[in-house]
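Appendix B. Raw example, untouched.
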Amino acid sequence: MTNQIIDTFMRFPVLFSGHPEIAWRADRAGIVLLLEAGSQAVRLQLEKGQVTVLPAEGPMRGWDIALRAAPEAWADHWQAVPAPDAFDILGMVRHGRMRIEGNFAPLMRHLQVVKDILALPRAAT
């Protein structure tokens, strides 16, 4: 299941490009997220209205905020109608299904855009 979640992370740029309203709101955003599913991770970079997915490993691979969850939690988050414990990242933290670590300032500054991007796979199912 972890590989399926990583594959979904890799589709974020394509999913994002199909939602110009989110891209418009993300125009001034700048944040790098470490998205972790079990033992695997990628970096999602949101900068000037563009989303890029990069490898998590490598020298100087920094991030602002890490979102760490089991693959099952990510799969539940992407259900057409997620349960309350999987609806958004803050609910997942509250119910112990995700950990958020790092610099919270950029996350709070761009919270709605980040939540909207992370929910994009729901519309694709």
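End of appendix B.
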